[in-house]
Amino acid sequence: MKAAWIGLGGLLVLGACAGDLDEQWQLDHDRIIAVRATPPGIVSGERAEIDALIGAVGQHPVERPPEIATVVSPMSLMGTVAPDAGKWYVTAPDAARLAAARTELGLKADAPVPLQVGVSYSGQTLLAFKTVFLGETRVNPSLDDMMIDGAAAPGSTTEIVVQPLTDVRLSVKADVDDTVNWLTSCGTMHDFDLPNAYLRVEKDDPTTGDLGVVRRVSDGGVAWHVWTIRAD
Amino acid sequence: MIDALGRPVRNATITIEGQVDGTVAKTGRDGTFVIDAPIGATLIVEQKAFGVGLATVIGNTVDDIVLLTEKQLGETIEVNSEAPAVAPGAAQLDRKELQRIPGTGGDIVRALTVMPGVVNLQLPLGYSGVVIRGSSPQDSRVLIDDFEVPVLFHNVGFRAVIPAETIASLDYIPGGFDVGYGRASSGIVALTTRPGDEKRSTQAEISVIDGGLLAQGPIGKDTRYLFALRRSTIDFVLPKVIPASADLSLTTVPRYYDGQLRLDHQLNEKWKLTLSDVGTDDIFELFATKDENATSKRFYNRTRFDRLTGSARYKDGPWLANIALSGIYTQFLFEAGLYQNIDVRTAAVTPRIDITHTDATAGGLKDVVWRVGAEAQVSRVGVDLALPNEKREGEMMAGMMFDPKDVSQQFKGHVWFSDFAGWSSVTASFDKRVRGTAGVRAEYFQRPNEVAIQPRGELKFQLAKPWQLRLSAGAYRRPPEFQSELLEKGIQSERSKQAIVGLQYEPKDGVRVQASTYYTDRSALITHDAMGKLTNNGRGTTTGAELLATYRGGPWFAWLSYSYSHSTRVDQPGAERRLFSYDQPHSLNAALSWQKGHWQLGGRFQVYSGLPFTPATGSVFDSDHNIYVPILADANSARAPIHHQLDIRVDYSWKWGPVAMTAFLDLQNAYMNKSIVTYFYNYDYSQRAAFTSLPLIPSIGLRGIL
Questions:
Q1: A50/B contact by beta carbon, under 8 A
Q2: Cβ–Cβ contact B157 with A under 8 A
Q3: Complex ipTM > 0.95
Q4: B681 near A CB under 8 A
Q5: H/E element, B95
Q6: CB atoms B342 and A1 under 8 Å
Q7: What is the pLDDT at residue B670?
Q8: Is B97 helix (H, G, I), strand (E, B) or coil?
Q9: What is the DSSP string of chain A?
């Protein structure tokens, strides 16, 4: 059983040497940061909107609907994703189609059906998939008790100003099973994947940019918040 | 025939073992003798002033035989020559010579990298076993005192788990091994620990990597002991070299302990008893953050084993028997974050018996050696596992991003293995120039309920005087007990068929050139099918050629090895043929060492191909799990560049009162060639960077022997 974990040990070493590559907390990078279904779980007849937080080099992160969205799985639910007025929606089908989908996936009769939706951005150079649960109502989480540098986090329209060469403490309330990512394009993020992280703008770091936080919960819900930030 | 001071021994009587009324020879004034004896025969040497001794005929001339008095060394005879290779391409490595090879840090097992056929990796990459002839580490077995050990190297420090000072010899058999070895489809590395010296002594050694003590000597007239203990010192150094800005907390700095104990007791003229114990314990714990309460970023590992072996050796005229009972306890524990863990605890007992009988003639054949043996291995493996699905050979590891919540593979329970093996062979000379071995090994693997019959044989032709030709062929099996294989009942052993042609040239004392070419056909390789289930659908082949030339003369020791290998496989019927992950086409090692007076100087140059890897061409973001799934090119379709480096070693020895001191400096990669080991990707596979070899690895140490 050992060799598989030799690989992981190697990854830790490699991770420690990854200075030339963009870190995962870096917002100044072309990528899909998170895909959101609002709401993430719906029952027959309801619909959920699909959008994503998109990062781009030299630009502020933005929320955008997909350029294209399609069903990846199960194939029997093809057609449940469709555009409407420039946005993309998943519409939960009737009970009979959900039952057929459960049979296709080998699920219990009352189990929610995981509909995997594929999305693309930037001319299909950025690809992602997201699961929407059909047959059960679910909601996205909230971002509570956000603290930045010892004070309650301001609203999105307020620019955050931090001191350079200082550890700026960041925190958000999260359950132990949640995944939290703190992201920035200003400074260096430490412990970016913990609810309690800290930001430090080093001498050679960019002094303007954005600060973001994404919280994922285990039932498929996601929430994010983005601020502009400056070190001064 | 000479005595301990190098003076000729006259009037020594030489007879051939097993020939009651056979040829008798006597040494002349100059100590020389002439006797008509076949290759492989055992000579019995008797002289009233000395102890009785034995020597083996390995050619038309026998190198100096040193006779020692009873007082000096009981019945031991030392033959100052290389032992004959046990298989074409095989070699027995002498401890003292290999400690002279630069770039090994004095570590005899790491000196394996000079052997042709051993896949070479730049530091800091490494693996826990040995990769031979382009296969995988699990296809070869590492034995200590005839029994398998689970790891050969420590996780940190790039050191073997057994110090060089406790090793008597290291047998490297890249293929074509005899029926006495099993459970491997590629090669064998067999370490033999050494008994304590006849003179009591204590020695200590310390370097920046580890330090140890060794004590040895006699207990009474018939018993000797050797005890060694080693502890890492790198854990004292490591925290000081980690930058304060790193998001890292080493709560338990990587450290290891190694321990060896060996007791040898000469019960009587026929029986010799040995008790040996080999153990190691590696541990580390770190947090990938400065916050030591963040258990989601905690990594903990403990790897330890202890093998205790009791053995008895019986020698009476034509009979030779080795009987042993060995037990091992191993634990591999790894915990990553909140969800992933593996704890594998194995307890195994292995009784083994191997008997040979020698006849001068039988059935018209000469110098016939009959061999028969049996072995059982009964193991209980306790597993507590919650991990992502295991990646098999050639499948890309998770990369920079792995899902810390992925526990797709779970198991909690235990598994029993009861494997049995029996073997028999006969070796005989057809005439003075041709000697052959034919044998069969039969194994029963209980878990897959599989019987494996493995015929093996070899022919040796003594050509014109310095030349010897060897042909070897055989069938080999590796039982399905590696990693997640042990959790599956429906898979069978991996198989290989090997054919080797070897040529050996020994123009004069101290010079040996071995060349061999081989073909290995591998089948029933265990791979994942399209549904992710393990099956025996893989096939593969390896072809190659190897050269090993050695020179020992006066103060000089020189070593040249080169290997060419091409190793490919097909994972499923109809799939594309691809390279093995450890396919290394070219590997060259040239070493030269000079020793005189207080000084020993040496240099080693190595150049070898980089290993294959699978490039990522993009990724798809799995937003639910916050990971990027790579889009991969064909498996192992790219290769890291070639690597070369020069290693230098300097030793200086002196007397400090009653203590014999040695200081050494071992520099790896002396001209600081930063070649590319492999490439690694960022979290979304949109960028990649070269992972380069360490620029310079110095090893400084001090040894004192009292």
A1: no
A2: no
A3: no
A4: yes
A5: helix B95-98
A6: yes
A7: 87
A8: helix
A9: -HHHHHHHHHHHHHHHT-TTS--TTBSSSSEEEEEEEESSEE-TT-EEEEEEEEE-TTS--EEE--SEEEEEE-GGGTTSEEEETTEEEEE---HHHHHHHHHHHT--TTSPEEEEEEEEETTTTEEEEEEEEESS-B------S-EETTEE---TTSPEEE-TTS-EEEE----TT-EEEEEESSSEEESTTSSEEEEE--TTS-SEEEEEEEEE-TTS-EEEEEEEEEE-
Nearest C-alpha neighbor of B145 from the set B195, B93, B184: B195
With beta carbons under 8 A apart, name residues in chain B contacting A183. Answer: none
Q: Is the pLDDT of residue B298 over 70?
A: yes
Q: What is the pLDDT of residue B404?
A: 85
Question: Does B357 contact A at CB distance below 8 Å?
Answer: no
pLDDT digits (tens, 9 = 90+) for A16-48: 444 578 999 999 999 999 999 999 999 999 999
B684-694 pLDDT, tens digit each = 999 988 887 77
Contact A194 B483 (CB under 8 A): no
Which residue, B192, B107, B98, B186, is CA-closest to B144? B192
Cα dihedral sign, B572-B576-B577-B579:
negative
pLDDT tens-digit map of B534-554: 999 999 999 999 999 989 888
- Dist CA B339 CA B343 (whole Å): 13
Query: How far off is chain B from A128, nearest CA to CA, in Å?
Result: 4
3-state secondary structure of B483: helix
pLDDT score at A99: 94
Chain B residue closest in CA terms to A120: B620
Residue B81 in this model has a pLDDT that exceeds 60 = no
User: Which residues make Cβ contacts (< 8 Å) with residue B633, sequence separation at least 6?
Assistant: B614, B615, B616, B617
Which positions in chain A touch B295 (Cβ < 8 Å)? Answer: none
Q: Residue B49, by phi and psi: left (phi above 0), alpha (psi -120 to 50) or beta?
A: alpha
Q: Between these two residues, B154 and A93, which has the higher pLDDT value? A: A93
Closest residue of B to A17, CA-based?
B691
Paired tokens of B383: 């597993």
